[in-house]
Amino acid sequence: MRTVVQRVSKASVTVDGKVVGEIGQGLLVLAGFHTSDTEEKMHWMCDKLLKLRIFNDDEGKMNRSVQDVGGSLLVVSQFTLYGDARKGTRPSFIESARPEVAIPLYESMLDYLRVNGNLPVESGEFGAMMEVSLVNDGPVTIILER
Q1: Least buried of 89, 105, 110, 146, by fewest C-beta within 10 Å?
Q2: Are 112 and 38 in contact (CB under 8 A)?
Q3: What is the mean pLDDT of the chain?
Q4: Is residue 108 within 8 Å of residue 42, measured between CB atoms?
């Protein structure tokens, strides 16, 4: 599993002109699922996201998690995170999990974060053409992989 995590002051995702997910301060998480991903890997990633200390404390040091600051999560599925463009100029997505694997993992991820994070969790729409807007706070962008 691979995620791109961005600390944001606000973010939203729109499908067909309608906002389907929107947050204020928190994390925008672009989540890609690999063909070999499991619930265990997804749980590890969720726990890492909830505890990742990338928000500033009173001294301006990154010592607080999204939970510590009372933030929110916007989780957007993105199979292109496993695009491989090492050969040629057209990426291959063979390592990206097929929808029959990725959809249950994505939905389980959202449920896990809602139950274990005790914070608002918004989402995009799996498989849809989405427009993601954000104000990257910092900017802070972290890539996590398991």
Answers
A1: 89
A2: no
A3: 97
A4: yes
Joined together, the tokens standing for residue 81 give: 């995170």
Instruction: Give yes or no for a cis peptide into 139 (omega within 30° of 0).
Output: yes
Task: Report how far residue 89's alpha carbon sits from residue 47's, in angstroms, rounded to the nearest whole number.
Answer: 36
Closest-CA residue to 22 (of 110, 140, 134): 134
Three-class DSSP category at 22: strand
Q: In 3-state terms, what secondary structure has residue 54?
A: coil
What is the mean pLDDT of the segment spanning 93-117? 97
Quote the Cα angle for 132-142-77, to 5°. Answer: 40
- How many residues in the chain? 146
| pTM flag (> 0.90) | yes
2-145 has which fold? D-tyrosyl-trna(Tyr) Deacylase; Chain: A; (3.50.80)
- Cβ pair 124, 13 in contact under 8 A: yes
Parse the chain into domains and list their residue ranges. 2-145
Looking at the DSSP assignment, which residues form a beta bridge with residue 145? 2
